[in-house]
Amino acid sequence: xxxxxxxxxxxxxxxxxxxxxxxxxxxxxxxxxxxxxxxxxxxxxxxxxxxxxxxxxxxxxxxxxxxxxxxxxxxxxxxxxxxxxxxxxxxxxxxxxxxxxxxxxxxxxxxxxxxxxxxxxxxxxxxxxxxxxxxxxxxxxxxxxxxxxxxxxxxxxxxxxxxxxxxxxxxxxxxxxxxxxxxxxxxxxxxxxxx
Length: 195
Known about the structure:
By secondary structure, the chain is mainly alpha-helical. It is built from six helices and no strands. The longest helix has 42 residues. α3 runs antiparallel to α4.
């Protein structure tokens, strides 16, 4: 199988109009990844888990699961939708399009959005857990506080990103995303104090 050049991939990208869909998947699943890992961190903090290795194991397992789920689920969904659209286009034109740029762009789009969908929650989660990779060279309490700061920075950054796309007030958009993290923190605190 011939590996397509960058120029060819750019053409497929343009033909498939996949940029907007990929942006949507990126923001949505990075948000899921950040909130999921925040749940792990809050549970660890208020559950008095003070072993950096345990937090790394939990965090990496969760981020890997989100990455695989995002890639596989999105690939299957996007492939089904793209295959249907291609089949409808073939019916209306009475032409086999599988070995054309349109057909190849359809396959490209499925793989591209699956990679974006799988990578975004994984990367967001790994960034949040990264202080715990330092192990005993960083006090466990400090690792938690730095991780919480990274999580809220990621949430705010995602809000700014979405605000810039929608051309709304980016600060307000960032704060709306941060609010979701605060809610998770409050619920985690309440669960920790009642258990």
